[in-house]
Amino acid sequence: MKRIMMFALALMPLLSQAQGVWEQKFEQLGTTLPTPNQYRTASGAPGVDYWQQKVDYTIDVELNQANHEVTGSEEITYTNNSPDQLSYLWVQLDQNMRAKDSDTPLVEANEVKKEMTGKSLQKLTNGFDYDGGFKIKSVTDAKDVGLPYTINKTMMRVDLPEVLKTGESVTFNIAWSYTVQDRLNMGGRSGYEYFPADDNYLYTIAQWFPRLAVYDDVEGWQNKQFLGRGEFALEFGDYEVNLTVPADFIVASTGTLQNPKDVLTAKELARFEKAKTSFDAPVIIVTEEEVIEKEKTKSTAKKTWSYKAENVRDFAFAASRKFIWDAQAVKLGDKTPLAMSYYPKEGNPLWEDESTKAVVNTLITYSKHTVEYPYPVAISVHTAAIGMEYPMICFNYGRPDENGEFSDRLKWGMIGVIIHEVGHNFFPMIINSDERQWTWMDEGLNTFVQSLTEKAYYPEKPLRRGEAKLIVDYMKGDKMFIRPIMTNSEQIIQFGNNAYGKPAAALSVLRETIMGPELFDYAFKTYSERWAFKHPSPADFFRTMEDASAVDLDWFWKGWFYSTDHVDVSLDKVTWYKMGVPEETVENKPKKGKKDKKVSESTEDEKVLDFAEEAEIFEFKDTEDKSYFEFLNRVDDAAVKLANENKNFYELTFSNQGGLVTPLIVEWTYEDGSSETEYIPAEIWRMNENEVKKVFVKDKKVTNIVIDPKEETADTNVEDNVFPRVEKPSDFDEFKSDKK
């Protein structure tokens, strides 16, 4: 008995491994998601008492080229729409990530390599002659009385003299300055680029003013420190901004220019007005020839460009005397926004040919799949080695060589980044998710719609992300270096794959394979419309996609977003059956239980998984009376037998090698050369997450089977997706061969 017990105990791990572990892949997300309430409903829609704060800014700012300093003062009006009383406000000081006491260089892991370039060594030692961070000059109330404030790294708490009650507003002022960094040396989402050939600068300015942090029903204050990667959570509001720059600078900005007659020449103004009705091609407002002349003169006078922007969550601008400027009108419903590009001559001819065209294509596609673009302009600005987005404006790379030559790779890369960054106007500038916490909600969703834009307008462009097969290498990688999609920005290891590629691939699988384009597009647009100009959370997206489609997707979110499992379905076995017929009509009737595998004569150590030469037979029997229970009517056994006597029954055995449950897509090829494809929902795995058998009934004899023939599920091993196939020797077979 003891030996039997020991044998049983030794066998248990093997049985457990063979049967797999039940991981509840089809259980509902349930308490994983926050409990619905009056602010956010179980359907994924904003609740009857949904609220969000409003922050309005009036800003005067000057950009000084001599010392690269931004100096400004702002009046902030904060409206408390929450049910809570607030005794203080949190303000983001993002430039402080470059201050001397910043945590950013302290938490960045680094190492010494055998060879260190000057640039890499400078970064390693933080050896920059640069005094970064905001210099806060004053924080005062509406009567210019000082307010107490406390700065904690990249956050500043402003203490209010009185509690701010529901429905009340408070106005206060901040004066500040900071020095713009050289992006060549220090990198960053904004900064300046220097052009030594003509001794000029190009400024792309963002995170340039103290901005209110978000206070909402999900997080309370989103005052997580800014370390450099996790982007921004911001409130909507109205802006009035006066930008003072050198007089020969051209300014590209969030918002609508209020004083074009004051800042543009007569020629520029006439071209600007013409662009507003040019729907077929861009109008060049500032030409390359005009820019070359300005590069030589360098005005020392100043001009102030005034802009207004309504219902935006941020404000950015770019400024340079090097800017060529073109614009084209776009027809979107009853709106005609201007698609515009600003670029130095170093960007030509590529930028003049492609940039504004890409902006137009992006606005059209995204408006179709999300919400109609609501803003008056959409701007693409060229500067080196960047792709970064803000409301109505983005900064993009893509520079030809000194002879104006460029490769297809550079061209497609530039077009891709413009589509992506302009697309960010929708995610998260309009559908305003919390980037500091959930990178995938803006980057992943945006990358997915980017892929739809590229397929619609640039079919010849190689697609980098947005299809299932493009994420396979990442999905099958070492799990030590992979994180679930539902991971905070600062903890993601492979940022591009995790936050951009995998979510985009997941949505592609959802659209093309699981839901179908019609259901998916309706649900995706519903989510966009529900949460336009609001603050959606992941649960709001998950719930809306199910609510608007009637497709239960909890298993999908669990597998793709909460785990690091991957898709790897193996077609382990195919058994061909036919129904038994009277003995006298069959010659050489095969014995019951005949196996469908045979040993290949070609090599000794290979196996051939092939169809049996003859079908296995199952016996037809008339239904016994006891099977009918209380029913008085009967199945017509003779008719059933007649209907199936010439049918081919194929029993397929599938195993889930990767852990991620997935639909089964089966392509059949028949003896006559015809083929068909069947889609089996992922719920086929609901009773056994590790192995399933499925019988298919065919009129024709099958000669070939392929699982996931178009590679639309991100299956990481397609070698075991075909039948018949040659199976590689196992490690054990090789071990036996070595021993011989």
UniProtKB/TrEMBL annotation:
Domain Peptidase M1 membrane alanine aminopeptidase: residue ranges: 410-560
GO molecular function: aminopeptidase activity; metallopeptidase activity; zinc ion binding
InterPro entries in the cross-refs: Peptidase_M1_dom, Peptidase_M4/M1_CTD_sf
Domain of life: Bacteria
Entry keywords, A to Z: Aminopeptidase, Hydrolase, Protease, Signal
Cited SUPFAM superfamilies: Metalloproteases ('zincins'), catalytic domain
Signal peptide per UniProt: 1-18
Entry-linked CDD domains: M1_APN_like
The protein's name in its UniProt record: Aminopeptidase N
